[in-house]
Structures are given as structure tokens and as C-alpha cells.
Amino acid sequence: MASNGENGRHQEVGHKSLLQSDALYQYILETSVYPREPEAMKELREITAKHPWNLMTTSADEGQFLNMLLKLINAKNTMEIGVFTGYSLLATAMALPDDGKILAMDINRDNYEIGLPVIEKAGLAHKIEFREGPALPVLDQMIEDGKYHGSYDFIFVDADKDNYLNYHKRLIDLVKVGGLIGYDNTLWNGSVVAPPDAPLRKYVRYYRDFVLELNKALAADPRIEICQLPVGDGITLCRRIS
Ligand SMILES: C[S@@+](CC[C@H](N)C(=O)[O-])C[C@H]1O[C@@H](n2cnc3c(N)ncnc32)[C@H](O)[C@@H]1O
Asked: How confident is the model at residue 20 (pLDDT cuts 50, 70, 90)?
């Protein structure tokens, strides 16, 4: 959840900091992230900060991380589940080559349309195919089609946590061997280590068990190598090896 930094800025960006102090997180943002944030991403971040659900957005440091990661792996064909206003989508679109592609899915098109003018202005909309609706049936259809097996370089999952394991069962087939799946929020506000009687918000408590189950399943899955990073709300990178 947003924490109240000395200057309240965490609240503004809706960040779920896992660092030991707000000051340290603010230091990262001000020293390394904001000075290098592309104008379009800054604009979208500021628009999103005014949204009543701004807490859902990917943080600027995680956006910077995703952008760098996608360039490092030379990603071209990607997928995103959970778009909201499009901050991580824009970070992805900026990292891909001009003929790169992102299949972007969300049950809510209205929020995507808030960010779309910024993406269009940046000349990146042609890389995006947005599909409104639940992602799971789309994945099932793709698997049934047979054309998409092992075709994705990178897949970012940032939507309904209670379906992450269902996504994983399908995505492991769609990502290529050597490709990456990134699961967001795998430290779930730090609640993964909260004692059973900790006073957690209802939705944090509800999704916590799914996140715990996912983390165990990923650690035991021999088809992937994993790396869990305390960036944003925790992101687990899974590299398909078989
Ligand atoms: C945490 S937000 C995504 C944040 C986004 N990555 C960003 O950078 O701002 C989660 C999104 O998942 C979407 N969502 C929830 N259930 C979904 C489902 N079954 N299929 C696709 N999207 C879903 C929500 O509408 C919401 O926009």
C-alpha cells in the first residue's frame, strides 16, 4: 500500500515500497529514475496519479527496470496481462523495436483509453494490440489454435492474483524456451511474511494465499529458472528452460 513518506510523495505515486525507509525509495526515484524517465512516461505517470485507483499503477522504478530488461533480452514479441492506464505497457512499447508487438489484455478498456493518447503521441500505438476482456479465455484460444506455442519473448502478468497459477499453466506453453515471464506483486505488500493474526486489509489477506501458493509453485517448477526481485511490490522473473 501507499506509505506516508516524510513529504507524502509515496502516496502521490501510489507506491508499495518494500524498502527499509521511504527516504531511501525517494532517493532512488530522484537520483536514478525521474531524471531519466522519458517525457511520455512522466506524462502518463502524472495523469495516472490523479486516477482514484492510482495505487494499481506500476511504479516508475519498476517501469525503468522493465524497459531495461526488455532491451537486454532483445524482446520483440510480448504480452501483458493487466494494463490499467498503460504505464508498464508504455515502458514495454518504448523498449521494443519498431516492428515489435505487444498483445495487451485488460477487462477494462476505459482505463487503457486514459493512457492511449500519450502512447499515440509517442508514436508507439502501432505496436499494441489491445483486447478487452478476461485474459484466460484468450490464452486458452491461443493454445487451442496451436500457432502461438513458444512464440513470446516476454510476458508481464499484473492482473488478478487469484489466477496467476492458471496463467502460469498456459503461459509456460506460450513463452519461448529462453524467454521470460514476469509475475508482478509476488511480495504482496510484504504480507507474504505477515503473522496469521496481522491486521491486513481484506483484499490483501484474500490474495495473499494465492501469492504464497504461486511463489511455492514457481520455486518447484523444473521448467523454469527463477529470480525474485524486491522491485516495486516484488517481481518474479521466470526463464523458461524446457
Ligand atoms: C495492477 S493493475 C495493472 C497495472 C498496469 N500494469 C500498470 O502499469 O499500470 C491490474 C489490472 O488487471 C486488470 N484485470 C483484472 N482482472 C483481469 C482479468 N481477468 N483479465 C485481464 N485483466 C484483468 C484490471 O482491470 C487492472 O487494470
From this structure: confident
